[in-house]
Amino acid sequence: MSLWTSLDPASATVDPGGSTTVRLRLRNTGDVVDEYRFEAVGALAPWTVVEPPSLRLYPGTTGTVRLDFAPPRTPDAAAGPHPYAVRITPTEHPEAATVPEGNITVTPFEEVRAELVPPTVKGRFRGRPRLAVDNLGNVKLTASVNGSDNGDQLSYDIRPGNVQIEPGRAAFIETTLRPRQTTWFGSAERRPFTLAVRRSGVAPLDVEGTYVQRAVAPRWLAACLGVLVALAITFVMLWMAYKPQVLTAATEQLQQAGVSTLPPSPSPTPEAPKTPPAASSAPPAATEPRQETGTGGGSGEKESKAPEKAPERTAATAVRELAAKDPGGRHICYRVHVRGKGWTDPACDGETAGTPGSGTPLTAANLAVAGTNGTTGRVFVHDPASTNGEGTFPDPFVNAVDGEDDYVGSTKEDAPAMLGFAVSVDRGKGAVCQSSYVHDDTWLGLACDQPGAGFDFTYAGTHDNDSWIEAVRLTV
């Protein structure tokens, strides 16, 4: 071996997102000039920069190479010691390569992100939001979850109440909200609540949501019942106060005038002469059959030509027209299939598609985008066999490129009601924002997906198996 090496220091510590430097010293102990190439090997190689990458030394001379370690602040940079090595290959004698080794310790860090899916839930007796907790740190996360609200108006059933999440992973926590008092009549009431993710030694992470409690019976029904009861009471009181009495004043006046009240005896009437039977010798006038003159030949029959059916106007048709007017912009067009009515006309960039307030559910949606590298979607529908009060995802994700139609759901007569749908676009090309109208309620608040936040879709609608959406608005 004609090479001597030394690492200074042999062990070092680095924070994720920061950097540290280790110097490699080497001496040419041979008797010829040689050039040495350096290459980082091992698990830390992607985070290591060797400067310079090669060094030429004369016999008996010493040189220094700098090793810069810069692990990212992500779960990939696991906390703890990490061995590393540098392969040194002499140009003159490549078979005599040497590999000095050292150790780098990555310090731990914690980063937690939580989100409610969906942030607003609706129901008469319960609501079922899901809390997604992401561990973006480089150590295992141990946390507990509890709920609270102003006025203690809700009770909380959280499963599981405690979670352990590995770095770079996520956990979904099922939550059931139940109002402590039932609203029988009236309008829906909004009840804000907070789910707190608690960890030892740090402040809790609060995630806010809203539970919209709907009345058991709609407000118009209570008004109708009140009007009917008031009318019934008024009728009874008027009947009792003004009950009609039948009098015989006419008979008494006749007796006073000396007129008998007996009916007169019938008098014989002369026999009416019989009418002679109508003559039947004259036949009825013959009617000429109406002939329709044709336009083409002598057949006498009018030729009818069915009008040609116009091509169907889909979401892709509308978005291509927008893209032609604005080639560099981002656009989304969509239409929905209303049960019993068929497809609506395409709507674009925040316009309303559907029939909000009609009570008629949607069963399918047709989406198309421009300027976002395509779209991906998945439908969530009513589940008649549900045991947890939620619907189901019957089909896998489907996608389409820019300018092409993407369909979710079904247009069959017996298709289940659509509770909602998930939709996304290329993270580098924007984000989808949505608002949906849920049956027997108002528009949900505007919600958008967050590129790079661990969630690659936004969800329009509700998870409640007893509800459905009637209209949507989308933007990109």
UniProtKB/TrEMBL annotation:
<feature type="compositionally biased region" description="Basic and acidic residues">
    <location>
        <begin position="300"/>
        <end position="312"/>
    </location>
</feature>
<keyword id="KW-0378">Hydrolase</keyword>
<feature type="transmembrane region" description="Helical">
    <location>
        <begin position="220"/>
        <end position="242"/>
    </location>
</feature>
<dbReference type="InterPro" id="IPR006637">
    <property type="entry name" value="ChW"/>
</dbReference>
<keyword id="KW-0812">Transmembrane</keyword>
<feature type="compositionally biased region" description="Pro residues">
    <location>
        <begin position="263"/>
        <end position="276"/>
    </location>
</feature>
<dbReference type="GO" id="GO:0016787">
    <property type="term" value="F:hydrolase activity"/>
</dbReference>
<feature type="region of interest" description="Disordered">
    <location>
        <begin position="259"/>
        <end position="316"/>
    </location>
</feature>
<feature type="compositionally biased region" description="Low complexity">
    <location>
        <begin position="277"/>
        <end position="288"/>
    </location>
</feature>
<keyword id="KW-1133">Transmembrane helix</keyword>
<protein>
    <submittedName>
        <fullName>Hydrolase</fullName>
    </submittedName>
</protein>
<keyword id="KW-0472">Membrane</keyword>
<dbReference type="Pfam" id="PF07538">
    <property type="entry name" value="ChW"/>
</dbReference>
